[in-house]
Write a structure and sequence with these properties.
The complex is a heterodimer of chains A (about 325) and B (about 475).
Chain A (H helix, E strand, L loop, with lengths): L1 H13 L5 H9 L1 H33 L6 H16 L3 H11 L2 H11 L17 H11 L8 H4 L8 H29 L3 H6 L3 H7 L9 H32 L7 H18 L2 H40 L1
Helix pairs in contact in A: 1-9, 1-14, 2-3, 3-4, 3-12, 3-13, 3-14, 4-12, 4-13, 11-12
Chain B lengths: L1 H8 L14 H11 L6 E8 L2 E8 L5 H12 L4 H5 L9 E3 L2 H10 L1 E6 L5 E5 L28 H11 L5 E8 L5 E8 L5 H13 L8 H8 L11 E3 L2 H9 L3 E5 L5 E4 L17 H30 L7 H12 L5 H21 L5 H18 L5 H15 L4 H39 L1 E2 L2 E2 L6 H20 L1
Antiparallel strand pairs in B: 1-2, 2-4, 3-5, 4-5, 6-7, 7-9, 8-10, 9-10, 11-12
Classes of the chains: A mainly alpha (about 325), B alpha+beta (about 475).
Chain lengths: ~325, ~475
């Protein structure tokens, strides 16, 4: 994971004043760059639709059982579009503002420790290092979201080292947070069989809480979680619309309605075919291609071209 | 000869840049013409020192004592050559260059004097200064501290600031706003602390927006604020002197409008609307408690009715077992869905508030008794509204009134209606969407280039809150 970050960072560092999309054009030529941008925009849209479908599925099965899915999803799209259509700065302010909500999640999850049995976590490592690696391979990309910063690299204040530090810190924090949640779900449930039976173990666990004044904490949890979903959907929306805007040299708000409609339709289709896990597998492959291979390739290309340029310079 | 000249002059009567003619008859005609023969324009022609003198003033805004004392007894007794040299010994007068200036001076309450043979017009200020005495503002009362409030006269307000803030850094700039009727405004700021960019931006906005006439700061605010469509106020209104001075020291810019006892403060942060003047005089722990109470007030005022509706309509299982029966019993016989129930009660409370505002103070309490006790009691007995709903609505109303600034309180009261609607449609999920939109909107808002709703960062917290108290502690100990 750190490798992915480093590759992206080095690529951005090569052209510190350019947006990621411009870097594509610069390193791989006009035509190939444009195709790359389209691919990335589609990739972000797909990811966005996947998130929407997942969210619609969870809200539909936990909170609003009888509301049609398309209403829940289209509301989310509309709300996100409202925020994305303004400046990057206001979006950043919003993200900072909603970050403290994580503390509530932390508190909610820690509360379950009172019923936990730490023996359930054992045996660790019985499956072998290879299996752990295989498992983590699938999960790794759900933690990648902070690459966002590399697409808006020139707009962020601070030296490139600071930015790298911020991204790495953010990833470490998220990884720890997820690990903590997984750990708690593991120690709370009886056996692996239980975990396999419950589709969303964490929500299920919270549902059992009773604070004597208020019950059904899962409802509150989901309400807060919706805001987090909105943030991740917003950045995908922003990136894909920025990509198309870069392609046609127009304002990114022009493409927002189009992208919203596409993601909406695709996500409803995803929910309709009801095979989210299969889609997730395909998406994981996409993650590898778009977040690891292409940046690495571009980095190599940029190194070669730079060296060639410098050699030519010396020859002159 | 005289008639002849008048004929040639008539077409240019409307021309404001008319050069000053030393002909009293023409001047009188011009003044009557430009004031459309209003009856309070008094023009007197007298013979003094052998010269024909014309004295014009607006009878209604001139002080007759001053007229007598300054003009008749002093100015006109001065020898002509002394007036001509402009050597102002005992009377402060102004020499006018254009007829348009004479018009302006008359509107300010001056008396315009023309002496035949001098080729000049003179203006002497004899305005009637009737002003309200300085009193404590009705809607911003404090327990401790200064009880001064602004009045309707611009210069008096500036005086109140200057009197308290004795600093050579204090800058006052006069400007005019309005196309048809020009109203004087004053920008007041501290040179050292304030941002030049913001000042220029305010001036530019005042100049660039067309408006016929400004009578209220509310209009001025709508004219120059960043997004007029937003429900949130982006400039702080206050009538308190101490509050204004505290903001001046923070580098804010104050705008006064002639004829308005309220001043505008810009740029402001969201939290400024939650401060009351009492905060400056209370101890830090009390202040912390009270201000967190106000934050809670906003929270309750916006979310409580919506939350109640969401619970009743969608998530009844949120309630613990002990609460289910009492609430179920109270809403069992109610004929309306919770949204309608809440709307009826909220609108009733708003009506009572609005009616109480219009009534004279002697009848006011009657309305609140009739509204609060009679309607509240009877509506429950009639089985139209549940008791829990009455409690929810009452708490909401009280919470909304705890917000110290009137405008923010209005914004919050309005905001809860869309939230109630969302809660009735989609329950808690709908409320989350409402929260996203409102927070997003607040993040988008800017007040003259500075963010309106920036959350505290960790660094701010260290510098502003902890740092201040440590500094204070050190200061008091040494």
């Amino acid at each position: 994971m750190i490798g992915v970050i480093l590759i992206m960072w080095m690529l951005c560092n090569q052209y510190p004043c350019l947006v990621m999309y411009d870097i594509f054009k610069k390193t791989s030529g006009e035509f190939l760059g444009k195709t790359l941008i389209v691919c990335y925009a589609v990739y972000f849209m797909l990811q966005g639709s996947y998130i929407l479908a997942r969210y619609g599925h969870i809200v539909g099965s936990w909170v609003l059982e009888r509301t049609p899915h398309w209403i829940i999803i289209s509301l989310m799209v509309a709300v996100s579009a409202y925020l994305v259509k303004d400046t990057l700065q206001s979006l950043a302010r919003f993200y900072v503002l909603v970050t403290p909500l994580l503390i509530i999640l932390l508190f909610l999850s820690t509360y379950s420790l009172k019923d936990a049995n730490f023996l359930y976590i054992l045996p660790i490592g019985s499956a072998g290092a290879l299996n752990i690696f295989k498992g983590s391979k699938e999960a790794i990309f759900s933690m990648l979201g902070f690459d966002f910063i590399f697409f808006i690299f020139p707009f962020v204040n601070g030296s490139s080292k600071q930015k790298l530090k911020a991204v790495i810190m953010a990833h470490i924090f998220v990884t720890l947070f997820y690990t903590y949640l997984v750990f708690i779900s593991l120690v709370y449930f009886m056996s692996p069989v239980d975990i396999n039976l419950t589709p969303e173990p964490f929500i299920y666990m919270i549902k059992a809480y009773s604070f004597h004044v208020i019950e059904r904490m899962d409802l509150f949890f989901i309400s807060i979680w919706i805001i987090s979903v909105a943030t991740s959907f917003m950045y995908l929306l922003l990136l894909s619309s920025k990509g198309l805007a870069n392609l046609f040299r127009l304002e990114h708000t022009r493409f927002l309605p189009l992208i919203c409609v596409i993601t909406l339709i695709v996500s409803i289709w995803f929910m309709h075919i009801d095979k989210l896990n299969v889609i997730n597998k395909y998406l994981t492959a996409c993650h590898y291609v778009f977040q690891l291979f292409i940046p690495a390739l571009l980095l190599a290309v940029s190194f070669i071209t730079k060296r060639r340029a410098s050699v030519r310079h010396e020859a002159k | 000869m005289d008639n002849n000249r008048n004929k040639t002059e008539t077409p240019s009567m409307n021309n404001n840049n008319l050069p000053i003619e030393n002909d009293n008859h023409t001047i009188e005609k011009y003044l009557h013409h430009s004031f459309k023969h209003t009856q309070d324009l008094t023009v007197q022609r007298i013979e003094e020192n052998g010269a024909s003198v014309l004295i014009a003033y607006l009878d209604t805004i001139a002080d007759h004592n001053k007229l007598q004392r300054i003009v008749f007894q002093t100015f006109l007794k001065m020898p002509l050559n002394e007036i001509n040299t402009g050597n102002q010994t005992c009377v402060n007068y102004k020499v006018l260059r254009e007829m348009a200036e004479a018009k302006e001076e008359l509107l300010k309450g001056s008396c315009v004097i023309s002496i035949e043979g001098t080729k000049q017009l003179y203006a002497i200020n004899i305005a009637n200064d009737v002003m309200r005495s300085i009193a404590e503002p009705e809607n911003e009362k404090v327990v401790q501290g200064s009880h001064e409030g602004f009045v309707e006269t611009l210069r008096q307000n500036v005086y109140l600031i200057r009197k308290t803030l004795k600093s050579d850094d204090l800058i006052i700039q006069y400007d005019k706003v309005g196309d048809e009727v020009q109203t004087e405004i004053a920008l007041v700021y501290l040179e050292k602390h304030s941002n030049k960019r913001v000042i220029n931006e305010i001036k530019r906005r005042i100049k660039s927006k067309p408006i016929d006439c400004v009578v209220n700061v509310g209009q001025l605010e709508g004219l120059i604020e960043d997004s007029a469509r937003s429900p949130f106020p982006q400039m702080l209104n206050t009538e308190r002197v101490d509050r204004t001075i505290a903001h001046l020291n923070e580098g804010k810019i104050i705008i006064f409008l002639e004829g308005c006892a309220t001043c505008l403060i810009a740029p402001v942060h969201f939290s400024a609307f939650l401060q009351s003047a009492d905060d400056y005089s209370s101890r830090w722990n009390t202040r912390l408690f009270i201000s967190s109470l106000r934050f809670m007030g906003i929270f309750v005022a916006v979310f409580l009715p919506a939350f109640y509706i969401a619970v009743i309509a969608f998530h009844f299982d949120v309630l613990p077992d002990e609460l289910v029966m009492p609430i179920k019993n109270s809403i069992n016989e109610i004929p309306f869905p919770p949204l309608i129930e809440a709307f009826i009660m909220e609108l009733t409370i708003e009506l009572i508030r609005e009616a109480g505002l219009r009534l004279p103070p002697r009848i006011g309490p009657t309305v609140s008794i009739v509204g609060g006790l009679v309607i509240g009691d009877a509506i429950v007995r009639a089985g139209l509204i549940s008791t829990t709903m009455i409690i929810v609505v009452a708490i909401t109303a009280i919470a909304a009134f705890s917000i110290p600034t009137h405008e923010m309180s209005e914004a919050v009261r309005l905001l809860r209606f869309p939230f109630m609607l969302l809660a009735a449609c989609l329950g808690l999920v709908g409320m989350s969407f409402g929260v996203i939109v409102v927070l997003g909107h607040l993040c988008k808002l800017e007040s003259f280039g500075s963010p309106y709703f920036t959350p505290f960062t960790l660094k701010d917290f260290k510098d502003k809150i902890i740092g201040k108290y440590i500094k204070k502690l050190i200061k008091t100990n040494t």
